[in-house]
């Protein structure tokens, strides 16, 4: 007897499982398990991201067009990057050009790494006619306050002799003045929206250097040098634009790239997952759904503070649709994940037969999790 289709479709909207599977593959594997466990079920795959690494991939999976671009990496060496474009909207992911993964040989360069490639990607989006640029921040290798980004867009950062500053946060200590002239025309009429999930200021104990500098290889005297550079940058930019953005929430994001976006690109900031769900058409996808499935590599306390699965759960709940999670590891208690809006939560570590299987057999186990979900939520 043929299977009877279940009423209402299922939306599978996970983030990447960092180090094992990209979001699109997670979605495909969970969807395959659901189809096997509940034949006849319509499953729609909509991988998501929160503005960090994986943002470009999520946009491409949602139908944006991939535009390749060779740009400067964090140390100035060329890298093959890309942006995503649909209509007059472009998605630029910082990690594509200036991320830790782009460091040659994985060797950090805390004082010299810069964000020039991000500006090149923005410039490419402008040349393609973009009127709205979504800038995803996350995974940055630099602590240059976004200086490189705006230099790539024509801003002059000059020392006392009128010489353009070298790349990197350390060079900012020599900043004497800023020439904004070339920046104004290219960005006229263009909306820049930053997808960001941190509220750190640029400077101080919660700032870009203190909190994120060590992740980029800075310690000891490096941290002092970088803080001095960002302070000088904030002073000069504040004088030039007539407003001080150093304490704006999110100014410290991505080594201070958030600061330059706010102060010099006129950007606005939105929570990353909220912005991405709008961009990916989540509300339309979930309309009439029976179940939403989301997830990420580790469901933990950080998940509850603006990460992708929590945002998906909140949006699904607002739509009146149950939501379940699949994760590589589950570090929340049942009380915690239920309080966050999840009707079920599955960990690959619980499905693994041997230690390490959740990493080496992640794709296979994600399908098993999909079958378990089908049995629990879609049977009958």
Automatic annotation (TrEMBL):
<keyword id="KW-0808">Transferase</keyword>
<dbReference type="InterPro" id="IPR018193">
    <property type="entry name" value="Glyc_kinase_flavodox-like_fold"/>
</dbReference>
<dbReference type="InterPro" id="IPR018197">
    <property type="entry name" value="Glycerate_kinase_RE-like"/>
</dbReference>
<comment type="similarity">
    <text>Belongs to the glycerate kinase type-1 family.</text>
</comment>
<keyword id="KW-0418">Kinase</keyword>
<dbReference type="Pfam" id="PF02595">
    <property type="entry name" value="Gly_kinase"/>
</dbReference>
<dbReference type="InterPro" id="IPR004381">
    <property type="entry name" value="Glycerate_kinase"/>
</dbReference>
<dbReference type="InterPro" id="IPR036129">
    <property type="entry name" value="Glycerate_kinase_sf"/>
</dbReference>
<protein>
    <submittedName>
        <fullName>Glycerate kinase</fullName>
    </submittedName>
</protein>
<dbReference type="GO" id="GO:0016301">
    <property type="term" value="F:kinase activity"/>
</dbReference>
């Amino acid at each position: 007897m043929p299977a009877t289709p279940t009423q209402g479709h299922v939306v599978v909207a996970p983030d990447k499982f960092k180090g094992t599977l990209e979001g699109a593959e997670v979605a495909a594997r969970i969807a395959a398990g659901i189809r096997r466990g509940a034949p006849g079920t319509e499953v729609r795959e909509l991988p998501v991201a929160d503005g960090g690494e994986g943002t470009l991939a999520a946009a491409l999976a949602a139908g944006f067009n991939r535009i390749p671009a060779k740009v400067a990496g964090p140390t100035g060496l060329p890298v093959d990057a890309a942006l995503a474009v649909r209509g007059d909207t472009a998605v630029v992911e910082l990690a594509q050009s200036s991320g830790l993964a782009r460091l040659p040989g994985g060797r950090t360069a805390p004082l010299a790494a810069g964000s020039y490639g991000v500006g090149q990607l923005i410039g490419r989006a402008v040349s393609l006619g973009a009127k709205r640029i979504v800038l995803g921040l996350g995974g940055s290798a630099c602590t240059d306050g976004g200086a490189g980004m705006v230099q790539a867009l024509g801003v002059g950062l000059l020392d006392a002799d009128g010489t353009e500053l070298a790349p990197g946060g350390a060079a900012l200590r020599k900043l004497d003045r800023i020439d904004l002239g070339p920046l104004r025309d290219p960005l006229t009429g263009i909306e820049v929206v930053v997808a960001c999930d941190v509220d750190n200021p640029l400077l101080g104990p919660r700032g870009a250097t203190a909190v994120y500098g060590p992740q980029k290889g800075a310690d000891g005297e490096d941290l002092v040098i970088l803080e001095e550079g960002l302070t000088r940058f904030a002073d000069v930019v504040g004088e030039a634009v007539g407003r001080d953005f150093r304490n704006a929430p999110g100014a410290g994001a991505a080594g201070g790239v958030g600061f330059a976006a706010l102060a010099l690109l006129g950007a606005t900031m939105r929570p990353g997952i909220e912005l991405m769900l709008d961009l990916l058409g989540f509300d339309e996808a979930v309309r009439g759904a029976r179940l939403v499935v989301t997830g990420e590599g580790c469901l933990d306390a950080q998940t509850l503070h603006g990460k992708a699965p929590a945002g998906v759960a909140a949006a699904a709940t607002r739509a009146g649709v149950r939501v379940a999670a699949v994760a590589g590891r589950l570090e929340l208690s049942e009380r915690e994940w239920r309080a966050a809006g999840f009707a079920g939560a599955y960990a690959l570590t619980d499905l693994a037969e041997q230690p390490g299987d959740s990493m080496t057999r992640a794709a296979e186990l994600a399908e098993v999790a999909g079958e378990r979900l089908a049995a629990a939520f879609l049977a009958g």
